[in-house]
Amino acid sequence: MRRSQQDRSRGTKAALTAAARALFAARGYDAVPADEIVRAAGVTRGALYHHYADKKALFRDVVVGLEAEITAEIRTAMTSAPDLPTGIAAALTAFLDACARPEVRQVSLLDAPRVLGWSDWRAIEAEFGLALLIEAFTLATDAGLVRPQPVGVLSRLILSALTEAALLIADADDPAQIRAQAEQALGTWIAGLIG
Amino acid sequence: MRRSQQDRSRGTKAALTAAARALFAARGYDAVPADEIVRAAGVTRGALYHHYADKKALFRDVVVGLEAEITAEIRTAMTSAPDLPTGIAAALTAFLDACARPEVRQVSLLDAPRVLGWSDWRAIEAEFGLALLIEAFTLATDAGLVRPQPVGVLSRLILSALTEAALLIADADDPAQIRAQAEQALGTWIAGLIG
DNA sequence: AAGTCTTACATACATACGGTATGTATGTAA
DNA sequence: TTACATACATACCGTATGTATGTAAGACTT
């Protein structure tokens, strides 16, 4: 059986991103040498630098994949709920769960801003997580749940608070308690937006 | 004139942190080789590794110094106001101004979490910025401006939103507009805490 | 189907950085 | 003033990234 060049490329890129994702998640971006990634992926440095300009480009691919994945999860949680308010609540839960995963925490929250640069990272976030948040916001506004207002900046502030909450929970000795406090604080905030 | 050993140490450490701070601020932690730092400080690698365990330890010293500096500025802004509400407003302004400085943005907000590790960075933040925020919160609670509540988690969420706002403003094409939106959003949040 | 071109990879190498080991000068105390 | 500790300088080593070069495997052309 003859594999096409496209298939070959897809296969090795997938192997590289999968290996890189696991290693980056476990030890962080620059604690993982490219050698180890290619070894885990069953290829050599040649393959890596053929498909990616540099190590950072591979990392970016990992981040985008991860972001796409968790955004899909959250979107599913939100849209599969019977009504919008419970959907939003479910989305919040799904978000906190996603951020609690070590790979998300390490790769997407800790490494990404610095490795990719803040503005590039922000662009990725805007494409995925922020887009979802603004979507939810718009739905809520249309449903009359919150009063109309410029949502761009507000969404980013909320997203950062959500992210911070997720990190706090992940790092806490008593996650349940911290999560309760965080959800209460965030709930109060959201409630204040209704009017 | 004979300089004591303490004076020598203080001098070279100060030269190292000053040089490192400027270089880290301009180009980021790992874009700056230690060689360049020691050259700028007028010493050699020997001096660096005599006083600091590694490059990261020097960076940490820079972060702590920076944090102490801006916290002092903000505290001054807050306490030198005639009353608490205007003091808090002044503190907010001072905070946003501080975060807008490139060195704070790069060193303290972008590099620090990853280079030092999130929990160590969090500890530094807790000692300076967060402590100030909680202090303000407690004052406001005592003055009856906000209702009593657990402030630890809430303060962190607010701090992260404040920080995000500062980054957004620093990165915006139209800083004034973004700043206005951010202050409005934050103001609404704070207002919701009263009662 | 033979030859040519292009893509996909492997290997070898150049370079740069961080950290250490060793040597030397300067201050300090018995 | 002798014995020691502290503060630095220099030379070196290991390891990482990225590049240059070579090779094999599809993919067109005729």
Automatic annotation (TrEMBL), chains A, B:
<dbReference type="InterPro" id="IPR050109">
    <property type="entry name" value="HTH-type_TetR-like_transc_reg"/>
</dbReference>
<feature type="domain" description="HTH tetR-type">
    <location>
        <begin position="10"/>
        <end position="70"/>
    </location>
</feature>
<dbReference type="GO" id="GO:0003700">
    <property type="term" value="F:DNA-binding transcription factor activity"/>
</dbReference>
<dbReference type="InterPro" id="IPR049484">
    <property type="entry name" value="Rv0078-like_C"/>
</dbReference>
<dbReference type="InterPro" id="IPR009057">
    <property type="entry name" value="Homeodomain-like_sf"/>
</dbReference>
<keyword id="KW-0804">Transcription</keyword>
<dbReference type="InterPro" id="IPR001647">
    <property type="entry name" value="HTH_TetR"/>
</dbReference>
<dbReference type="GO" id="GO:0000976">
    <property type="term" value="F:transcription cis-regulatory region binding"/>
</dbReference>
<protein>
    <submittedName>
        <fullName>DNA-binding transcriptional regulator, AcrR family</fullName>
    </submittedName>
</protein>
<keyword id="KW-0238">DNA-binding</keyword>
<keyword id="KW-0805">Transcription regulation</keyword>
<dbReference type="Pfam" id="PF00440">
    <property type="entry name" value="TetR_N"/>
</dbReference>
<dbReference type="Pfam" id="PF21351">
    <property type="entry name" value="TetR_C_41"/>
</dbReference>
<feature type="DNA-binding region" description="H-T-H motif">
    <location>
        <begin position="33"/>
        <end position="52"/>
    </location>
</feature>
